[in-house]
Amino acid sequence: KYGVQVTDSPYVVASMGIMTRMGTPVLKKLAEGAEFVRCQHSLGRPLPLKAPLVNSWPCNPEKVLISHLPDSRQIMSFGSGYGGNSLLGKKCFALRIASRIAKDEGWLAEHMLILGITNPQGVKRYVAAAFPSACGKTNLAMMKPSLPGWKVECVGDDIAWMKFDHQGNLRAINPENGFFGVAPGTSVNTNPNAMETIVKNTIFTNIAETSDGGVYWEGMDQSLPAGVSITSWKNQPW
């Protein structure tokens, strides 16, 4: 499935480069006439600015509007820079619009993690599990097993597209290409794999910055070196 998003946010462009499989192969498919979901996004702060920004984070919370048009395969988002409202290939397309496409075509788009589990005998099974947001779904998907000989692999932590094949087996894929997560509570104790993942190719937003160039958030469970101060995402001492 394909989508095209038009946005006035550099953050969205950079993030979608991480979160989706974008590039020349998609452009070739579009040139061949492939159907695609139309995604329009604006932060709602046109230039010249009429009011100052909070720490260079443009948005227009008084006029936020996110609209899904399943019949025309279209998404319109205005006024928000938050990931779920601005990265329209994520929840808006991959879950909401995709659930309508799936209904029309005979498959499923679900709010589910996918992980592979291999036992000590080498038998591997895949599990798809549905959980609401902010309940530990990502922590489960990225689990490090404590039982000797067991192996857990993360296929996806948020959305699953599922379809029965010709043999009657249920197949699932992760339509996303990266991870988008809420930082508070994430630490080496709660999700060590996530902490290793965000060492590179990661965009941090709405978190605190340390004076030595690092990042920080509630529940990170890491002590700071002596003399290091913290500044919040609103550019205030924390």
From TrEMBL:
Residues 107-238 form the Phosphoenolpyruvate carboxykinase C-terminal P-loop domain. Pathway: Carbohydrate biosynthesis; gluconeogenesis. Its EC number is 4.1.1.32. It is an enzyme of class 4 (lyase). InterPro entries: PEP_carboxykin_GTP_CS, PEP_carboxykinase_C, PEP_carboxykinase_GTP, PEP_carboxykinase_GTP_C, PEP_carboxykinase_GTP_N, PEP_carboxykinase_N. GO terms for molecular function: GTP binding; manganese ion binding; phosphoenolpyruvate carboxykinase (GTP) activity. Its cofactor is Mn(2+). Pfam families: PEPCK_GTP (PF00821), PEPCK_N (PF17297). Keywords: Decarboxylase, GTP-binding, Lyase, Manganese, Metal-binding, Nucleotide-binding, Pyruvate. Residues 1-103 form the Phosphoenolpyruvate carboxykinase GTP-utilising N-terminal domain. PROSITE patterns: PEPCK_GTP. GO terms for biological process: cellular response to dexamethasone stimulus; cellular response to glucose stimulus; cellular response to insulin stimulus; gluconeogenesis; glycerol biosynthetic process from pyruvate; hepatocyte differentiation; oxaloacetate metabolic process; propionate catabolic process. It comes from the Eukaryota. Coiled coil: none annotated. GO terms for cellular component: cytosol. PANTHER family: PHOSPHOENOLPYRUVATE CARBOXYKINASE, PHOSPHOENOLPYRUVATE CARBOXYKINASE [GTP], MITOCHONDRIAL. Belongs to the phosphoenolpyruvate carboxykinase [GTP] family. Monomer. This is phosphoenolpyruvate carboxykinase (GTP). It comes from Perca flavescens. The lineage of its organism: Eukaryota, Metazoa, Chordata, Craniata, Vertebrata.
